[in-house]
Amino acid sequence: MKKTFWKPLIITLVAIVVCIGLALLITLLPDSSDEESSPSPSSSTPPTSTYLINEDYYDLDYIKVHFRDDPGADLEIHTYLEEEQQRFSVEPAVEGWTYSHDSLSSTAWNAVSVTALAKVAESTDDLAYYGLDDPMYVFEIAFKSGANFTLRIGDLTAVADSYYGMIDDDPAVYAVSKYSIQKMSTNELSYRELNFFDTSVYLDQETMTYDANGGITYIKLYNENLGLNFELRQRTADELAGDLPAGTTTWHMFAPVDSECNDTNVEDSFIDKIVPLTIESVITDVADETMLSEYGFDDPIELWMENADGETVHYYIGNYTETGDCYVMAEGCNSVLYASGFAPAVLETNYIDLMFKLLWIENISDVSRIEYTLGDTKRLLSIIENYTDEDGNDVFYATLDGRAISVTNARRLFTYALNLLIVGDLDEAYSTGDAAPEYSIAIVMNDGTRNTLDLYAMNERQYAASVNGAPAVFYVNVSDIRALLTAFDYQDRGEEIPRS
User: Are residues 341 and 383 in the same domain?
Assistant: First the structure.
């Protein structure tokens, strides 16, 4: 055969022999891996979870926690029985605070059943390698039975699902459950009960109905520098059932003006932006007043609330973000709190939007006559008869300028007189001087009471409005006045006045 045939065949056979030899060599070499060569639990034998502590929850006596990075935060959790129930106390406790039983119970459950996810090393001469020369946390866990454990916790493992830990005199290094350690290393601030004021869904015990606004019946929002000054109160069911004037609303505004309210706007555009404010945690106790400015409490937004049960709260809102996170302090509590759910948009609320926007409102059954002064023209609508007879029939008779007017047109002229909507407020009251109003409407009640609305032209489109001689701080659009004049035109033509 030719040499060109044998040469490739020989090379292939030699390559196969070399590969087989290397494979055998690798198999025969001893395992030189060192259990301490890597702090990751994945370098050890396959992980099997084991209990480092596995004691009876109800036998727990106390837990002592030492924080390496904050020795002042060291605390003790002690157990005691109350009405045959396991209870907890915190030392040192801060006066004025109660502590969450659920949070303390969660810590206790984790302490009595500390789990190792894996054994990282049988022993070590280099504690610093695992952060155990100066442990991040040291837990002393004691039981009434006499069992005592000391658990030392170092750095996070490479896979970050656990911490390196050692227990008592055991020389082994373990990967200890991160979840358990996080629960057990809770500081005193985080155990505090945050039951300041519940603005969650409120159940009315009398009607057994739910109020999504937390049962809020009073609210005040104030900051002088921001121009905030809102104060509103909700009338009670008994108040609303009484003999109230027409136009009385559920919510009443006391500041910045005294006014009935648009109840829907108050609840949807104002209260709904405040109710979600939720205290989430305690940030720090205030050691001195110099700390206040750091959190924005040198010029806080003040918020007062009261619910249907008479519970009250007075919050101070400091720095806040557009996403609704903020710092809060509560009256009587010398701690900075972290809260969520604050809506900065509420600070842009225009009180006009919360008002019942009619300048005035009366019930036609209470009215004797309406006097209209429309420029140089005067008109008089008189309600002669307005009652229900013995047979339940409505009796109504009215005149305009001494002539009979239909029931429909009389009622609609009355409605047009009332439908003068507030468009906005003025920065300062409009100065009327000695000038006479361009338009004036006087409603005289059956009892002789007289209410007068005077309108002064500010420009071609807007009229300043004064009710009963009060300063003209609101204005209306000329379109509403034109609508009233047009209504008289329909009547004078003998036509039915359209609905307003």
Answer: no
Residues 11-33 have pLDDT tens digits of 555 555 555 555 544 443 444 44
Task: Of 358, 355, 356, 318, give the one whose Cα is nearest residue 335.
Answer: 318
Are 235 and 345 contained in the same domain? yes
Q: What angle do CA 38, 42, 48 make, to 5 degrees?
A: 130
Nearest-5° angle of CA 46, CA 32, CA 129? 70
Question: Residue 56 sits in which domain range?
Answer: 41-191
What are 207's two structure tokens? 């009607």
Q: How many whole angstroms separate alpha carbon 142 and alpha carbon 108?
A: 11
- The confidence score (pLDDT) of residue 37 equals 39
- The region that residue 29 occupies, defined by phi over 0 for left and psi between -120 and 50 for alpha, beta otherwise, is beta
Strands (E), 389-468: 394-400, 403-405, 424-430, 439-445, 450-457, 462-467
For residue 2, tell me if it sits in a domain. Answer: no
- Per DSSP, what are the bridge partners of residue 165? 153, 174
Q: Which residues touch 219 (CB under 8 Å, ≥6 apart)? A: 230, 231, 232, 270, 271, 274, 303, 304, 305, 306
Are 192 and 144 in contact by the 8 Å Cβ rule? The answer is: no
Which of 132, 157, 191 finishes a domain?
191
Q: Which residues of the chain have pLDDT under 50?
A: 1-5, 24-38, 40, 42-46, 201-204, 207-212
At 410, which amino acid appears?
Answer: A
Per DSSP, the three-state class of 250 is coil
Return the C-alpha torsion angle 293, 294, 295, 299, nearest 10: 20
What is the C-alpha radius of gyration for the chain, rounded to an integer number of angstroms? 40
Strand 60-67 with 335-340, pairing: unpaired
CA separation for the pair 259, 387 (Å, rounded): 30
- pLDDT tens figures, 36-77: 434 545 444 445 678 999 999 999 999 999 999 998 899 999
For residue 106 the two structure tokens come to: 């969660």
pLDDT computed for residue 308 by the predictor: 84
99/79 Cα distance (integer angstroms): 13
CA–CA separation, 100 and 188 (whole Å): 10
Residue 338 and residue 320: Cα distance in Å, rounded?
10
> Which of 292, 324, 354 marks a domain boundary?
354
CA of 316: how far to CAs of 10, 94, 199, 279, 323, in Å? 90, 21, 16, 12, 18
Nearest to 337 by CA among 295, 279, 287: 279
Q: Are 259 and 356 in contact (CB under 8 A)?
A: yes
Question: Is the residue at 249 inside a domain?
Answer: yes
Comparing CA positions, the residue from 499, 496, 424, 491 lying closest to residue 464 is 424
Contact 337, 284 (CB under 8 A): no
Residue 384 to residue 162: CA distance in whole angstroms: 89
Mark whether 174 and 212 lie in a shared domain.
no
